[in-house]
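Figure 2 data, in text form.
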Amino acid sequence: LPGGAALAAHHARDGARRRAQRGAVGERGEDGVLAVRFEELELVAYEAPDPDATDEERAARGDVLPELLRRLDGETIAIRGYMSPLEFEDDRVSSFVLSRNLPGCCFGVLPRPDEWIEVDVLAEGGVDYLPFGSVVVTGRFEVGEDFDEYGYVTSIYRLEAESVEEPW
């Protein structure tokens, strides 16, 4: 079996191939929400820019994300994953990372930037923390590199959560 990096690259190529064959990402429900899977968000050859790059050098990279994924920007999506809290309001979660895999899984392999989504909860007072089961998050999706003040990419995908629910 391939090692961690080789296996991750294989899965990314496979997800990109399936996305290209379909010519679309996700399936739209009757309610207009696009149901998306993490496999459809996989990037084959993404490389974050040098944090010391100038704005002009970053712009010269062009569009580093596939058009099919860029089209998701602003869409209302639903996606299933695992919650890792970032911020709490009292004992409820107000922002979290939604990841493809259960935190602590994957034998210590760091997740790739396409395997997690930064989530801000819109509900006043946050949502309950669900530590071991998956959740389905629905809301407005943002696609594109987001940088911190030091020039590092902090996320590729972000979601303003209108709802966070257990899938059953």
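Caption note: Helices lie at 4-22, 55-60, 67-70.
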